[in-house]
Amino acid sequence: MSTQFNSDLHMHSTASDGGYTPYQLMKKCHDVNLEIIALTDHDTVNGIAEAIEAGNSLGLTVIPGIEFSTKHGGKSVHILGYGIDWKNEKLLTMLAAQREMRRRRLDVMLAKLEQANVPLQAKDVLKHVDGGAIGRPHVAKALIEKGYVSTVAEAFDQYLAEGKPCYVEKEQEMTVEKAISWIHKTGGLAIVAHPVYYNLDSEIVNWVKDGGLDGIEVYHRDHDEQAVAHYETLCKQIEQETGRRLLRTGGSDFHHEDYGRVPEPLGVTRLKNEYAHELLRRLNQ
Questions:
Q1: pLDDT digits (tens, 9 = 90+) for 83-137
Q2: What is the sign of the dihedral through the CA atoms of 180, 181, 184 and 185?
Q3: Which of 18, 30, 179, 274 could pair with 68 as two cysteines, CB 3.0-4.6 Å apart?
Q4: pTM for this one?
């Protein structure tokens, strides 16, 4: 069994809110000796073709992925989809409608920023988007560029986080169950991302039992040893209750070097290859 740590199954490109194009990101993966990676942009598959092409030329195994933004009981919950059919017409239509919804949400956010005396124009934000789904990090980048704030964290703390003056709810939130269903309908496997953010262990049990959730992101850059042990125990508990083997995944959640509660270059948080191989085996079944 491989004990190599050369996998990373959670990262973002400029197709959503990352700092590097899919090609640049794959080159960075290659440069730090990663072997199996997944591109998991938020609510878009626009970067996958370029990532796979780059991965092929660099000798990487690239798993097509997505990270769905959902709401459960008023909490944001992210669901990762691996091995999805990213060319599925129905999926692409649904994602296009979501992008349109995010564009309308941006207009409301810009109006609120205007009221807060930090005026931005749509073009200031859209130049950071690269054709993908518009997110609050893009607005944060524009705020930094205009000198209103100095970091993404400050932009969220002052204006964009839930409960702050310029936060805007999405018109329609996807449910966890719907995200899992979309992933399964397109041939993929569904994993709950960074569960340490949510404190929803009993709901995770239900998503496995009732919704068919396939696994848990046990290893994440924001999971310390205690969190890893906790979610490994939860996996075992669910396996005993259901008789189903759960996948354990993990990754750096890399956007760019300055991203995150603690900034971190690509290649620091790594996943043991055996977990990536297990995911690939399940997808090939």
A1: 999 999 999 999 999 888 888 999 999 999 999 999 999 999 998 877 667 888 8
A2: negative
A3: 179
A4: 0.90
